[in-house]
Amino acid sequence: MIAEIIINSNVRDINHIFDYNVPTEYVGIIAIGDRVLVPFGRKKTFEEGFVVGFKEKSDFELKDIAKIQEGFKLNKENIELAKIMARRYFCNISDCIHLMLPPGNATKEFSKRVTEKSQECVYLKKEEDEILLDIEEKKIKSEKQIKTLNFLIDNNGSFITDIEMFIDTSRAIIKTLEKNGYVEIVEKQIERNPLINKKVEKTSKLKLNEEQQLAFETVNKSIKENECKEFLLYGVTGSGKTEVYLQLIEEVLKNKKTSIMLVPEISLTPQTVDRFVSRFGSEEIAIIHSKLSVGERYDQWQKINNGQAKIIIGARSAIFAPVKNLGIIIIDEEHDSSYKSDSNPRFNAKDIAKYMAKQNNVPLILGSATPDTTTYFKAKNKQIELLELSKRANNAQLPNIEIVDLREELAKGNRSIISTKLYEEIENNLKEKKQTILFLNRRGYSTFVMCRDCGFIAKCKNCNITLTYHSKENKLKCHYCGYEQKNIKICPECKSKNVKYFGTGTQKLEEEIKKIFPTATTIRMDVDTTTKKNSVEEILNTFKNENIDILIGTQMVVKGHHFPNVTLVGVIAADSSLYLEDYRANERTFQLLTQVAGRAGREKNKGKVIIQTYNPDNFCIECSKEQDYEKFYNAEIVLRKELKYPPFCDIIVIGISGANENQIKNVSNLIYSNIVKLYKNNFSIYKPLPAPIDKIKNKYRWRIIMKCKLDNNIIDTINSSLNNINNTKVRISIDVNPNNMM
Ligand code: ADP
Ligand code: ZN
Ligand code: ZN
């Protein structure tokens, strides 16, 4: 008997099926999905592999499988999905299998958990690339040290007791790594169960309004009939979508089945979880997201695997949870970009959810107030059933939205980033002791330094992107590679002293606000203030509980939060996301503005939203003023059709990067000509060109863009176009409809 094995490795060359002999003692025991140890190449130690199939004959002389690993096993369905994903997302099968393995790649079951209050927690002190290079150059030799570092690359911020449990290492080894500057160890509170301290009052189900009832019954019919069907639950913010989810989940529970509920990573806050715990209790709920430590993730995973958890709430990777008896999949805020992975495997959780719904004959619900243009297009064309909730459920009114033309402000001589109108409203809110949120749309927009005489712009020497000015330290920093330098006073090109910084960061906005309103209390939320675990929660709790006057923040303030005392939302400059080099720029701007506006006046007090912009006539800004999704969609879909963008086409981006620009260019051209030769159908392909950000961390970046429907034909073409590329110094990534086009 011969087993087909996939080696656990992300090296492209090893992405093959290897044949191994099954020793007689394992015949009849071994199964697809088993994790095995096998001899591989010239290595003295065994490699881990996964059994993906069996056959009777092989043309080669085969080695024996050494051992079948104990503990969690994958199943046939897992392997089948991994194979489909590897093809569809152009990556290794083992990369996809990884998503389905227990956290920390655990090979055994841990029953004894450490529960002391405070523990030593380990963080990496160097960048991943740097560590991998040191390993490659044999600066680190000890196998155990290497193993520990690799584990931390996947699970940064792990408790020592956990690391010792997951892999064969020790505190002494971690201490050595600390001494050599690779890691730092900090004392930290340990919280084994993220649901434990929840003291929430039990809520019982609400009487649904007519629209909710109709939505509920329609989906419930599919639940009862074990029917795979896709729904779009399209309802304005606060229309009671979550209440519909809760009641559907209750039905699924009655049938002793399990529900998966995906939410955007960033809105997986205690507020969201509380609503589920208060309805169902914490016993049967498991949560999965990247902010949990590896030990916490393992416990949650185990709770699902042994069938105790019947409701799984999580970010995109939760779609791979080891659920036994699936009853429904719900994807809330389905338009959110976090459902698409930006790193290998570059999967879209929506595609996976659809596949799983089909395999398990269960309904899939996509919910949103501002659906993805593609999703709404499908709903209009009856590929998805549309369910609509048209008004707010608790009778709260939608906020008033006003647009301020910043060009007029300038003409009036107001050079501040706060318009007269917004100033008055903030002042008023302060007087009435109501809270305000100021939102800075910062994507592709930050504080940069420019010479007003010659136009010189300070850029990172490794990445060729604009450096960001940080006023606190008076430094210029690169947000890609972490490079930093002192701020410049004199232009290095023309020696002029007329060097100024432009644009507005959240930090500068906070300083301005403090100057204008010296007595107001403020709090800031952005990537710089939210690096530690849970700190998003801390900031939000402080804002709410201490009744801070003004919350200033980026994208992070937008999602799903509910603050009863917030009555004013100010958008500092709505425009910046309009200029993204991305076909979704309009859609993102509209979604963002609608979401921010949704934060105001969620209860008794009516809300007000002020949007400052240089483009008051732009259609997505107009539509967000009127909160008119339908109008936005109708205009957007025409553009998409004209320009051949999704849903009419897919955008496939082949990225080629490496340290040697000539090699990059050659490989790019080779792939390009391969594809042109192989693919005969009608499609658009653009000649290889440097990416907009053409260098990151000293690696040159080129790309090939294609516009066509991603079908089997094109998948095969792309896969075979890479066959004769074997330059290991060049990295190739293929992304379909990527989030980031830079
Ligand atoms: P969404 O998920 O669409 O934003 P929610 O489900 O959070 O909306 O509902 C918004 C508010 O309306 C919540 O406070 C919720 O308790 C309330 N609500 C929802 N459905 C009903 C209902 N049928 N009757 C009364 N209040 C409701
Ligand atoms: Zn100059
Ligand atoms: Zn850089």
Could you please describe the fold and organization of this structure?
This protein is of the alpha/beta class and 742 residues long. It has 5 domains: 2-101, PriA, 3(prime) DNA-binding domain (GIY-YIG endonuclease, 3-Layer(aba) Sandwich); 118-189; 210-393, P-loop containing nucleotide triphosphate hydrolases (Rossmann fold), CATH 3.40.50; 396-443 and 505-639, P-loop containing nucleotide triphosphate hydrolases (Rossmann fold, 3-Layer(aba) Sandwich), CATH 3.40.50.300; 650-736, Ribosomal protein S10 (Alpha-Beta Plaits). 31% of the residues lie in helices and 21% in strands. It contains 21 helices and 31 strands. The strands form 7 sheets. The protein has a 7-stranded parallel sheet with strand order 11-12-10-13-14-9-15, sandwiched between helices. A 6-stranded parallel sheet has the order 16-26-25-17-24-23, sandwiched between helices. Strands 2-1-4-3-5 form a 5-stranded antiparallel sheet, with helices on one face. Helix 16 (535-545) links the parallel strand 23 (522-525) and strand 24 (550-553). Helix 17 runs parallel beside helix 18 and helix 20 (661-678) packs across helix 21 (712-721). It is globular, with a radius of gyration of 27 Å. It starts with a strand and ends in a 6-residue tail after the last strand. The mean pLDDT is 86. The chain binds adenosine-5'-diphosphate (ADP) and zinc ion (2 copies). One zinc ion is lined by residues 460, 462-463, 478, 480-481, 483.
